[in-house]
Amino acid sequence: MTNYIIRRLLYLIPVIFGVSFIIFILFNVVAGDPAPLLLGKHATAQQIHDLREQLGLNKPLFAQYMDVVRSSFTLDFGRSWATRQDIYDMIRQGAWPSLTLTIPAFAISTIVSVLLSLVVAFYRGKGIDLFIRFLCIAGMSISSVAYILFFQYFLAYKMGWFEISGYEPEFPQFLSYVALPGIIWIVLSLGPDVRFFRTVILDEIYQDYVRTARAKGLGEITVLLKHVLRNAMIPIITYVVIQIPFLILGALLLESFFSIPGLGGITLNALNSSDFPVIKAMAVLSSIAYILFSLLTDVLYTLADPRVKLK
Amino acid sequence: MERPLLSIQDLTVDFITRDNSMRAVDKISFDVPMGKTVGIVGESGSGKSVTSLAIMRLLPQPPANISGKILFDGTDLLALPDDEMRKIRGNKIAMIFQEPMTSLNPVFKTGAQVAETLMLHRGMDKKTAWEKAIDLFNEVGIPNPSQKVHAYPHEMSGGQKQRVMIAMAIACDPKLLICDEPTTALDVTIQKQVIELLQGLQEKHRMSMLFITHDLGVIADVADEVVVMYRSKMVEKDKTRSIFEKSNHPYTKGLIACRPDLGANPKRLLTVSDFMDEEGNSLKVTKERVQVFEKNYEAKNDSPILLEVKDLHTHFPIKGGLFGRKVGEVKAVDGVSFQLKRGKTLGLVGESGCGKTTLGRTILRLIEPTSGSISYEGKDITHLPNEQMRLLRRKMQIIFQDPYSSLNPRMTVGEILTEPLVVHGLGGGKSERLNTAKELMEKVGLKANQLNRYPHEFSGGQRQRICIARALMLRPEFVICDESVSALDVSIQAQVLNLLLDLQQEFKLTYIFISHDLGVVNFISDEVGVMNKGKLVEMDRADRIYKNPREEYTKTLLSAIPKGLPKNLEAFLS
To answer: Contact, A136 vs A195, CB < 8 A?
Structure first.
């Protein structure tokens, strides 16, 4: 297993080269010259020339590519074009608000979904099953913006239970800011999660080993919680862990509606203002996170399933 | 008279869905006396497994609707509340299932799965239960029990897994053990061991057994009484010996007669349809039909050699280390040589994992050989370029084991049959190809107008006929049948074997017939090769192999076959 982890970590090197290459092509070749874009249409040729010099855009292409590779490895992405801030600092500051929103919301929604899907699997085919499935579909059929506006208006503005928007980094003050977007996150995830977990659990329920467990005289709840759930964990782990890299990117929509200064907001602003270095930094970070978490998925498999041996 | 341990009275099981209702078990009644074994035989879908699951109350209700009485030790199990029934399950009545591969939970240690039963019914603490589990592993003959309790199911062989299932079943000293096809998925030698184990345990623990199987050979070895089920009904019930000697029901007669045995073989196997028509009426069986022919093993001895294999090796690499270097290899085929003459049949037998399937696929170059040579019609094809090999494949076909998964479910039978012609650009236009398909459908005993149906509309036996027809579409000379009748019921198996013989005559085919069933191989083959661990340990004329095996391994294989009782076909001539 150590061999496997070392080998997978070594894969990071070619992947970073590859990701840097694609990003380089997209920004420096496909997107065209950013200097006139940044300076606006009244810029003089001299101003454009100076800016290109300053941004390192008149270096040879290969040297520019190596700059991207270097910053990918050192995680030093330079400064933002828009705000002149150090990008590393921007990300560090944005991480806390994002993670205080996404991680608790994600953890709660996953646990609640697994529990609900166990209930649904226990009562499969009966009224409760139908009712919860109906709620799932109904919930999924409503646009996420509708939830945001509705909850913000009624629960925060009318009832005054939550802050309408904004953020404070100190504990426990931040709770009152992230609670409402967190609840919306949970409501949005329940539908697809419960439906997926229910299918996974029902796939297991009809396996031969479940019949054996019942033939032993075990009660249905023990069968479900001990025998079925442990086997269903394998697909559930894949589904859950692979979402984590996206948590790091923050919740684009929720952060902007609730004015939370997180990574989602940073990314959105960078996209709006063609702030290429910030977009590059977010793209590189999410690729690395994606690889690390798919490695984590593999390692977790070995805990859930003794048949998996990583070589 | 002593009260029977289990008494089933008018048991009826219906499966009721919104659209229809199907009767799976129709008013059956029988007893299982104390300490005795009752066997239930019947083909798939006859309701025998449903009966056993109904006794355990393991059928989901709905859709199942069970009526009648199941008296166990005087209590009607069907009237018990759920929690009372749970105290009986795994405790007083235990059950072993057909598929040892999937019947154990893959993520728990085997010892834990046995200990779980003890903790549940005997109230043992974890430590005592694990110690008892080690004793039980020892009792069912698992070597190194104190280590093996820590093994996961995938670290054990099929036979060992079935032993774990048995350990789990006998953990609480049940009074009744229900065995649902416990040896069907196992090799003959393992089957013999498991049956001997069960018989030993039965005697020691004074259990009653309900033994469900489709194999009459096994039934004859284990059961005191036999219940024969056919199309949800119990058609006969008697002492085992009486069933074999003087059965009254045409279905039972057919079932006994259609099983190829190791004695002299008829020219064609009898089938149930020789004894009974579609409506279940008895038919008169003529004397000629049951007559035993001495097979002419010398016929076609002067025909030319079609296939020659010399010192063939197929090895698979085992990879390991940081960069996946090759650290070892599996020698699936390890130095096999033989010749096969045109028009003859070579039977390949051996246990699972002996390399017989890999050998067959290597000969067709579906798997590339590691070394050695294969020549076809005197021409070396070992290194033939793919383009030329493709041309040659018209002459070489293969029929696989599982007719359920080897037909594309989204293609009609017509498309399936004409596809080989389309791929090879043969057979003229679309209508000509369809005509060829129609002809072959009739040759394999199906109807020409069934061409626009889909595979799921056919039964297992019919699907295997479609597979055979597909293999014959290109008019091959050489066909490999890889366990082609293993997945079929004995009565269907007999029909398909007869068909293969007829087609061999008509199309002058040469067969390699791969099977783990020595009876079937004996019936169909001129020559038999016995494989073990990648090597061909013995090869000879079929009758000689069976009468005078030279190698120890062949003798072991032959002695493991359930002997059954001699069939007295003369008595069946009504």
So the answer is: yes
